[in-house]
Please model this.
Amino acid sequence: MATPLSADKLLKALRDEGVEVVEYKSWRTHNRNSAGPWGPVHGVMIHHTVTSGTDSSVALCYNGRSDLPGPLCHGVIAKDGTVHLVGHGRANHAGRGDGDVLAAVIAERGLPADNEADTDGNTHFYGFECVNLGDNKDPWPAAQVEAIVRASAALCRAHGWGKDGDTSVIGHLEWQPGKIDPRGPGITMGGVRSRVAERLRHAASWSPDNDQEDEEGDIVPDRTLFTTNAYVRTIKPDTWTTLHFNRQYTGGKWVDREPQASVLFGSVYYTLSVGVHVKGLKRGQEFQMRIAEYREASDGSFVRELTMPINSPVHDDGDSHFTYTWTGHISSVRKGRLRVEVKQFTDVDLTVESARVEALHWPV
Model:
């Protein structure tokens, strides 16, 4: 159970994360606490304002509308990345949403479809309204998205959320049936979450453009390991199969995570080394490995965008351990994610006994 941050702690958390903050009017005491409880809090919700202009959007979110009293969020994130604090306490931003989604946020696991409106979200979520028309044409500037990432990470860090990959940050469209925000060129919630998770692997002062340099001035890459740890995978004949990994080493320790396919998110330069242990092959039988890059589609699904060259060794005998290494980059335009895929050409199912990935990665 997480008690909401005090106004002072909220402000400090944002500034420690490098967020430029503007305190608007009497935001510290401006709330809807008389209408219902505020807390326990479990996550951060992102919205778009369906307005343009910073001053008018901030005023609207502070004052509210005739049919919906303010504050309409806790902070308004402008196009230039400035966060304007407009409320502290219960705010009219989330409305009623899906209790199954809230349960997933609390458990920090994958989000189910939002098909019910049975739970009061204003009690449980911090809310940020972001200045955007929401017409799927108005672009999201990089500075604004970076502020969303930093503000979300600040709250996750303060509460200890999202240490193994983050589902504590959701969009309004993932909470309440019929909602579409946030949307538009330059933002996806999957992209925001992956960047929040990356920030949480570093100190609050970290920035992608100030990574540590060695004595010769070269950037020292981050190193992340992924393993299956007894999570076995069956490979059917003549079919590309994506491996899943349920253990991750980062920040000096191993942590469990829900089995996930993606092992690295953009935008990064990377060297990926993969090792796979397979049982069931006979002498002369072929086993293939490759790395594939996926991008997030507008409907939230993932589509294979690129495949790297195939490594296709022929088995000698006994248990089989195959390796694959590839160096490349995921561009800021594609904002992709990397997965490991394998394929075999026997007439029976085979089993991947274990798999391991070592990723060295630098920001693009």
In short: Residues 61 and 72 are 5 Å apart (CA to CA). The radius of gyration is 22 Å.
